[in-house]
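Type I restriction-modification system, S subunit
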Amino acid sequence: MGKYQAYPEYRETRHDLLPPIPVHWMTGQIKNAHDVVLGKMLQSDAKTPADRLLPYLRAANVNWGGVDLSTVKEMWFSPAERKALRLMVGDVVISEGGDVGRSAVWQGELPECYFQNAINRARPKGEHSSRYLYYWMSFIKSAGYIDIICNKSTIPHYTAEKVQGTPFLFPPAGEQAGIAAFLDHETAKIDRLIAKQQRLIELLKEKRQAVISHAVTKGLNPDAPMKDSGVEWLGEVPAHWRLEKLKYTAIFKGGGTPSKDSPEYWGGDIPWVSPKDMKSRYVADSQDKITVEAIAASSTSLIGPGQVLVVVRSGILQRTIPVAVNLVEVTLNQDMKAIDFRDETRSEFFSYFVEGHEDNLLLEWRKQGATVESIEQEYLGNTMVPMPPPSEMMEILQFLNGQLEKYRLLTEKATRAIELLREHRTALISAAVTGKIDVRGWQKPNTEPQEAAEAASA
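Tokens:
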């Protein structure tokens, strides 16, 4: 915060959460500056002819930065409830449950809207600033105060009484508005930078998949003669590559779950891989481990290293196909399959093939009508897989490993940039709402031409 000035004088407060504050600021509680009201319990039917079916906000609608109206539900409100619980522009809505304390400012996004009892509404008294309160909520949330008073070891509830009693700093009303305007402008700049980095990560992900897809389908020689694969989404492949159905070139192995009632089967040193362990290209360990006795007494079996592990039953198959190559001997649970090519190079190639053609394979492999998303082994076995000669396959793998390492480093750099920007955002809000920096002389710069150019190039 080196570019910002401090206030001329500070005084101590009596609250552990708060640092010394400017001498002209006051301390108190949120209830001294805002009226806090809890919303209405769910009501699925009208109780009187005067009740009306109207939209309301749930905690799921409340996000930092704004209200999410992608899914808005309705319930019945009486005339008295409509008078007491109708949202007005400038109200701060605060999550009572779930991610307690998460807040947003209502901007009149709907002509008429109310809120249920998973939300507290804070309405400014007099000239107090609702946006200053919003940033204050962001500060005390990041400082951990809300989690402490809500006792997150149980189901947390940030009740109206707790909101009312939350410590609050009172700059003069005009100063509150100035702090909020400063933070609106500065956090918007930071958010734009974060959005650029997030877009870069998405572009790197798309480029990564495109490079994989091309390499495992077309090879590295652009002048190689091509032939029709016979598979519409696969298109042409190099003429000298073999095309084989998976069931003729690999062996499928399943898994199982040892009895949970037998403690002697659990806590051993043999990895027991389940979908929750499938988070990277390689598997060398698992959250759960079993014993040799468990293998003898169940349908699971040892899977040697260098095989392709695939999740075949899980809700995650709605959007992705987790695959990995195991680096050590493992066992599997019943939601997994191992595909054994008896050749680690072919296993690596096939894992890339799945990653590069994930969207098409999801459509081909998923079992229709299943209550839980699953892969049909018949469809899996009938998959036509292109296979280059061994030396060319090795070249492709070396190329992909080199390219993907570049993308990994760029993604890591962008992810770190996002972390630093978010840390700076949090620190800036904290400094402004606690008076560590004096922004009374701040004026919004005229950046409209620059921002328009940035938007055009985004």
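The mean pLDDT is 93.
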